[in-house]
Amino acid sequence: MSALESKPAPPPIEKIRIKVDGRDIEVPRMTPDWQGKLQPTTMLQACALAGIDVPHYCYHPKLPIAGNCRMCLVEFGTPVIGPDKKPVLNEDGTPKMMRSVLPYEPAAARGAIACATPISPGMEIYASSAATKQMREAVLESLLINHPLDCPICDQAGECKLQEYSVDHGQATSRFAEEKVHKPKQVDLGPRIVLDDERCILCSRCVRFTKDIVGDDALGFVNRGSYNTLTHFPGKPFDNNYTLNTVDICPVGALTSKDFRFKMRVWFLKETKSICTSCGTGCNIVIGSRQEKIYRCEPRQNDAVNSCWMCDYGRLNYKWIGRDDRLTQVKRQNPSIHGPGGEPASSVSNWPAAVREISTKLRASPASSAAIVASARQTNEELYLLNKLAQQLSAITDAVPRSGQSDHLLLSADRNPNSTGARLAGICGDQMGSKLPKIAEGIRKGVIKTLIVFGEDVTKHGIGADLLGRLDLLIVSDILPNATTKLAHYVLPACAHAEKRGTFTNIKGRVQKFLKAVEPRGDARPEWEFLHELVFAVTGRNGFVSIEGLFNQMAEEIPAFAGITWASLGDSGVTIPI
Amino acid sequence: MIVKRKELSFWERLYLPAVIGGFKVTLRHFFKKKVTMQYPEEKWVVPDGYRGAPYLVKDQEGRTKCVSCQLCEFVCPPKAITITPPGPAGAPEAGNVEKAPKEFEINMLRCIFCGYCQEVCPEEAIFLMKDYSLTGSTREEMIYKKEKLLALGGVHNDRIQKWKNK
Ligand code: SF4
Ligand code: SF4
Ligand code: SF4
Ligand code: SF4
Ligand code: FES
């Protein structure tokens, strides 16, 4: 999709002067549209540049313009042009204005929809005149005629445009005495979407999104007038990989997510800026959590990465963070002795003791007798620290590749969020995973006696349980238990990305940071924290104890990150050459 | 700041005049009509509009009126209310009731009987009733659960029954 690609700097754009609410401003004549093509600037965009918000429903900056809700009506005026093609002036020298009026009723103001009407030089927009206000009130009243009083049971309540504009332009009581039109409720549109047709205001955002952005023409309107109803085509469920974006862009609560349905009211949710970790695209997201529980993820606009969208697969891949079998204890294990349930004999340790013991053993191990299997789901900083450890031990390192089907919009075939970071940190070569057989071979031959594994189940990647059993020391850090953690001598509980801070580098070289939404479980700690302690204990060289300092140190040492700092990443990241 | 203490006069320092004054008041009340209520043997008539403990009500056909909108949880100043929303599945016995709380708890040790929950409720599902003396022998006992709140609240005869014609 062209809107997602970064473009070379466009040539300078001509500016024109207009007036918004009596204030003179200069705005570009052309503005990029939803596809990034230059189009004449609309009144709505000009008002936004003037800092004035024009209420709207159907307009969305990343969708084609439909102009069907009429909420954005504004009164405007254009300069009167004399027979000499020059503006006619008032007595005081100001240009004479012709206000827009109804052709058959010259006393009544006539509005134009701000989202689709281009500006012209000298135009005046009366975005808060009495006539504009009256038009908004009338449009809102007609939108509410058949709207149900569903706010108490509607998931959109609290972030609903209809609620917001009703507070601004609505009336306390309804004048509509007739019976409301009833439409289908709780309609099953597809595997992830529930539709309430009574709440739909027929803005067609969802229709345009799925047709023009996804290319899956699945939704449409049937019937006429007050009975106009949104539906999916018969026998064709609304089930593409981007359906949940329609829930975000639906200005009301008509389209709701089955996953989030009736789970929490939105005003309780704490919003944390983060990154999706389910593929190499690295869509920018906002995590909504309450009381250390994650309830939903929503896309966050970043035109260099994901525009306003994210895929359903990535959005719903968060539930494992709340699983009950999470690793929560630092454990010392003896895999050769088994308990009654086949569990290895273990004793609970703590972080200072474990770091001390592990570093003593690593310092005593002969050079080149260790190997490290990292994960490309780890952050740049963690991989950088692991590489420092590897250099000290002359250890061979690699990460585990992970791939799946890609699609035409966002989803990447690389299902690791930080493959680029793993390469840049020197953990793996261009072919991720190519050294794994060598590590297996080394263990078989008895050359490799120590294995450090981060966040991967190596038994599934060619280093089986029999090989792991031959090791003198197996240190495993992971989030959830697996076959590798069972065989470890030390188990170090780690954090999900939502529980720590850090940065990822996506497949196109965009370095992006994510923040902490919820507290880690039990004794689990961010990997970079204990890796930093371990690297200090093994190499004797100190680093930084804050993520900001660590990132900046890494950026100074790794040439690809040269010139960027934690602070300069901002919310939307920085693209580096890769 | 240091406040200077006023020196007592000789008359005040005598102490007996104050004692006599006190006895006079006692004597006066001794012969008047008695006003003390023998609580708890004798109970007080709670006036209408009194703000006692908040309970949940049902409609005439036994449906829970509360729809789990969580506005009361939001507004409650001491955070006495904890609601567990139903989630997407919904209770099978709920019939045509689209949304109702899975669990509704009011911690009566925290509640300050302010009445905000009743005021904010869009469904007229919670009311401050006349109970003012809530006791229990453990803290857990003082956290009233949904079933208990509904049993104590009883039926509210409302003209509007939200789920009747849905
Ligand atoms: S469901 Fe929502 S987005 Fe779709 S037309 Fe209706 S109001 Fe608009
Ligand atoms: S496209 Fe990739 S990064 Fe974006 S939401 Fe889907 S899985 Fe996550
Ligand atoms: S009466 Fe006040 S304190 Fe008690 S539950 Fe209601 S809102 Fe909370
Ligand atoms: S405000 Fe009323 S309807 Fe909403 S959760 Fe509280 S009691 Fe239930
Ligand atoms: S925003 Fe809907 S008509 Fe302009």
Lateral strand order in the biggest sheet of chain A = 20-19-25-24-23-21-22
How many individual β-strands of chain B? 5
At CATH level 3, the topology of the largest domain in chain A is: Rossmann fold
Backbone CA Rg of chain B: 25 Å
Largest sheet of chain B: 3 strands, antiparallel
Named once each, the bound ligands are: iron/sulfur cluster, FE2/S2 (inorganic) cluster
Give the oligomer, counting copies of the same chain as homo and different chains as hetero.
heterodimer
Task: Summarize the biggest pleated sheet of chain A.
Answer: 7 strands, mixed
Element-level helix/strand string of chain B: HHEHEEHEEH
Reconstruct the topology from this structure.
The complex is a heterodimer of chains A (578) and B (166).
Chain A: E1 15-20, E2 23-28, E3 30-32, E4 38-40, H1 43-49, E5 73-79, E6 97-99, E7 101-102, E8 105-109, E9 112-113, E10 124-126, H2 130-144, H3 161-169, E11 187-188, E12 193-195, H4 205-214, E13 219-222, E14 229-232, H5 244-249, E15 255-257, E16 270-275, E17 284-290, E18 293-299, H6 312-315, E19 331-338, E20 344-348, H7 351-364, E21 370-374, H8 380-393, E22 396-399, H9 419-424, H10 436-445, E23 450-454, H11 465-469, E24 473-478, H12 483-487, E25 490-493, E26 502-505, E27 510-514, H13 527-539, H14 547-557, E28 574-575
Helix pairs in contact in A: 2-3, 7-13, 8-13
Chain B: H1 10-13, H2 16-30, E1 54-56, H3 71-75, E2 81-84, E3 103-107, H4 116-120, E4 126-128, E5 143-144, H5 146-153
Antiparallel strand pairs in B: 1-4, 2-3, 3-5
